[in-house]
Amino acid sequence: MTPKSRKAKALERLHSRILECTRCPLHLTRTQAVPGTGSADAEIVFVGEAPGRQEDVQGTPFVGGAGKVFDGLLASIGLSRTDVYITNTVKSRPFVGPPPGRNRTPAREEIAACAPWLAEEIQIIQPRLVVTLGQIALDQFLPHRKISEIHGKPQSTGGITILPLYHPAMSRYGSEWIAILRADFRKISKVMIPESRT
Ligand code: SF4
């Protein structure tokens, strides 16, 4: 058995703390918190918005409808979940109405309360690239930029390279959006493999 890497151990400890987190009221209504998943040695970290109903039940990010689209997009560039690390901006499910309720966008206070967990995930993994999925995730790194203006264009901030992409859930709006998502996902390979080697 190979010994666990230092990063894997640190991530495991972090996940245990996230699972017990009560920093914001979302802990009162969740089934469980949903920390990130994937390789501690990943070169690419994907950041989505928040767990939905399926994620809340299963305890894993991106396992609902949008998760299936995400898996397909990853496969289209020759990657699988085990190659990368996938997490969300907010780790407990925000929803409205009586349970199971409808997913909602996380509130500003919930995002602020959860931000240190995302920062720690990135601090431990030290990826070469952070791919933000949707405006909420982009706001955590580049709060004044609009995804409609910079999707698919690599950005630099605080020593991190960010590639802002639309959220895979946009695929529900039709084939035009699927084409945009596929084209933007291809940019990931371009960022990871310098032009001279392509
Ligand atoms: S959303 Fe984040 S800050 Fe709020 S309870 Fe869940 S893990 Fe803690």
How is this structure best summarized?
The protein is an alpha/beta fold and 198 residues long.
The CATH architecture classification is 3-Layer(aba) Sandwich
CATH class designation:
Alpha Beta
Within the CATH hierarchy, at the fold level, what is the topology?
A: Uracil-DNA Glycosylase, subunit E
Ligand names: iron/sulfur cluster
Count all strands and give the number. Answer: 8
For the largest beta sheet, what order do the strands appear in spatially? 1-3-2-6-8-7
Which ranges are low-confidence, i.e. pLDDT below 50, for 5 or more consecutive residues?
none
β-strand amount? 5-15%
Count of DSSP H/I helices: 7
Structural class category: alpha/beta
What percentage of residues falls in helices of 4 or more residues? 25-40%
Largest sheet: 6 strands, mixed
Q: How would you sum up the global shape?
A: globular
Distance between the termini: 36 Å
Number of domains: 1
Mean pLDDT: 95
Along the chain, the helix and strand elements come as: HEEHHEEEHEHHEEH
Please state the CA-atom Rg, rounded to the nearest Å.
16 Å
Instruction: Write out the CATH superfamily name.
Output: Uracil-DNA glycosylase-like domain
What can you tell me about this protein's structure?
The protein has a 6-stranded mixed β-sheet, sandwiched between helices. The protein has a two-stranded antiparallel sheet with strand order 4-5. The chain has helices spanning 6-19, 53-58, 65-76, 108-125, 135-139, 147-150, 175-192; strands at 37-38, 44-48, 85-88, 95-96, 102-103, 129-133, 155-157, 160-165. The chain is built from 7 helices and 8 strands; from the N terminus they run H-E-E-H-H-E-E-E-H-E-H-H-E-E-H. The longest helix is centred in the middle third of the chain and has 18 residues, at 108-125. The protein is 39% helix and 15% strand. The protein has a single domain (6-192), classed as Uracil-DNA Glycosylase, subunit E (3-Layer(aba) Sandwich), CATH 3.40.470.10. The mean pLDDT is 95. The protein starts with 5 loop residues before the first helix and ends in a 6-residue tail after the last helix. It has 198 residues and is of the alpha/beta class. Strand 7 (155-157) and strand 8 form a beta hairpin. It binds iron/sulfur cluster. The site of iron/sulfur cluster has 15 residues, from helix 4.
